Amino acid sequence: MNRLLLVVLFLLPGCRQAPPTPGSDAALADTLKARIGQAYDFTRPGLVERMEGLYPDSGHVVSASGGLIISSVDSLHAGIQAFWDNVGKNMKDATWQWGDVYVERLGPDAAVMTASWSIPHIAPTGHPHVIRGAWTAVFRRVSGRWVIVMEHLSTPPSGG
Question: For residue 55, how many other CB atoms are within 10 A of its CB?
Answer without folding.
Answer: 19
